[in-house]
Amino acid sequence: MRNFLLGVVATVLIIIIGGYMYAKQGYMDFSADQKPSSAETHFAMTAVDASTDRHAGDHKNPLQATDENVVAGAVLYRNHCAGCHGTPSNPDSQFGHSFNPPVPQFFKEGSDMADNQSFYFIQHGIRWSGMPAWNKTLSENETWQIVTFLSHLEKLPPAAQKELAPAESPAPASTTR
Fold first, then answer.
1. What is this structure's pTM?
2. DSSP H helical segments within 106-165, as ranges?
3. Which residue in 156, 123, 117 sits closest to 137, CA to CA?
4. How far is Cα 103 from Cα 85, in angstroms, rounded to an integer?
């Protein structure tokens, strides 16, 4: 029995050391333009979900979904999030698809996260994904305004829709003299 257990321990150590050397020697491709294996995707998403469940807490959104808060969230979203996560006029951002994993396109797919999870992701980011931690840039109140906005995408007030509309370009100057 002792030899069997030593064999199991030795096998596990060889697998761990072999995996480490495989990665250390550069054989594992971490290019963002390469599709990850299904094992990598499963492991990463399971780890992110477990970490979020453990760290996001059960915070409730302290803001009411007033037009004022939703519009403020729309402005913050436009300025900080829209380039990656899309807008009503560009619901499928090409820039967002250049990330691996691809960035959620909220105006195409909606947001399926609970408010506490959205707050956690915005505040703390997601390592190795391109999602930055905004807690050094945005206050907690501003983050909750974005969360409020995201949770009301399907029924935005007209003022919020206006904030997300493409800017109208000025008319070209006349060239006649």
1. 0.82
2. 106-109, 115-124, 140-150, 158-164
3. 123
4. 6
CA–CA separation, 36 vs 30, rounded Å? Answer: 8
Looking at the domain 57-164, which fold is it?
Cytochrome Bc1 Complex; Chain D, domain 2 (1.10.760)
Provide the token pair at 71.
């519009």
Q: Determine phi and psi for 90, rounding to 5 degrees.
A: -140, 70
Question: Is 66 in contact with 142 (CB distance < 8 Å)?
Answer: no
In Å, what is the CA distance from 91 to each residue of 68, 85, 94, 108, 110? 23, 8, 9, 5, 10
Q: Do 138 and 122 form a contact (C-beta atoms < 8 A)? A: yes
Along the 177 residues of the chain, how does pLDDT read in single tens digits?
Answer: 888 988 989 999 999 998 888 888 888 777 778 888 898 888 888 999 999 999 999 999 999 999 999 999 999 999 999 999 999 999 998 888 888 888 999 999 888 899 999 999 999 999 888 899 999 999 999 999 999 999 999 999 999 999 999 877 666 666 665
Show me where the domains of the chain are located: 57-164
